[in-house]
Every structure is written in structure tokens, then in C-alpha cells.
Amino acid sequence: MQKTYTMTLKQILVENKYFIMPFLIAILGGAFFMSAYSLNDGHLLINQYHNSFFDTFFRYVTHLGDGIMFGVVIIIGLFVRFRISLYSAVVGILTLIIISFISKELLFHDWPRPANVFGKLDISLHYIEGVRNHMISTFPSGHSTTAFGLYTLLAFFCKKNIGKFLLAIFAILAAFSRVYLSQHFVRDTVVGSIIGFAVALLVFYYFNKIFKENKILDKSLLNFRK
Fold this sequence. Notes:
By secondary structure, this protein is mainly α.
């Protein structure tokens, strides 16, 4: 594990360039796509490209952005390093508050999802059998926020560059799956991804400062008494 407790924000970003670069490419690509196509036209364009392999692939890949993944990492972290579990719990709670309560309940609750929008327009979309199509609370994408919040944080703890890169790919695939499954528009996933990334970055930075000298957090259940 990396010793990054006193790193500045700039140092964190540079140290994790193998995660940051794919993230920036995805975000800039999404921004360019949104500037080139309207919300509806962009979704229809993506929706027309599908096949049985990707239907199955994205149906399962989307679970990488399930909130339960935070619970899995928190439990595993207890046996690796308490710091991972603590940071993951805080990022999970913050993203839950931002997405579930502030964004989807207070600010953007009635914003319609693709199935709702195109259903009213009497336009047929390609849907995957067995996937429930939600109708409201489209903005921002909760799965995208969760995926980038969790995998960004794990990338900061990861020592191997290939691991950082793969975690970025996992997050990007989880976010894109929400568009492929017609659960969200590109706009929703781009904003959700940025929120998740920002939360993970700030938690990692500030908690490393607050708990800089806390040696207990660098232990685990396996070596707690040593």
C-alpha cells in the first residue's frame, strides 16, 4: 500500500495518473458527445448499437456500481487495512446522501428517465429482458457515482499502475452500462462520475491529513494485536 498521508491534491492526481487519464478521457468524451447531440438524439444513437453479447455483458457489469459494493469493500478492508474500510464507509455515506437525498429526493426527483421520456414520445427503445426500467429520478446516475466513488478510492490505495488502470475501466464500464441499459442519459452518468470522483478525492486527501499519525488505521483484524 502507498504511503500517501501527506500528499497534496496535485501529488495525489499525479501519483494516480493511470486512473486519472482514463477518467478524464471518458469525461471529456462524454462532454463532447453531449455538445454534439441533444439529450434524446444522443441516447437514441447509442441505443441502436446492441447485440446479445453486450446485452448480457452490461446486464452484469452494471452491478459494479451497486451500493452493496461499498459493503463488500468495507468488510474486506477490515482484513487488509482499517483505513480502507473507514474511508470507504465515509465515501459511501457521502455519496448516498448526495445522490439519494439531496439530488434525487430534493432537487431532481421528477426528472424522467429514458423509458419515461421515449415512452411518452411513442418511440421504442432496445431493452434487456430481466432488467427493470425505472421511470424517474434520472439525475445524476447513482450507479455512476457509486462506481467512481469506490473505484477512485481503491485506485488511490492501489500500489500497481495496472491495478489503477483496471479500476478506471471498471468504473467507466459501470457508468456506461447505465446508458446501454437505458436507465440513464449520458448527462446523468457524466455528472454522477464527476461527483463520485470528487467525493473520493476529497475524503482521501482530508482523512490522510486528519489521521496522518493514526497507526491503528494501518492495522487489520489479522495483525491488530501485533
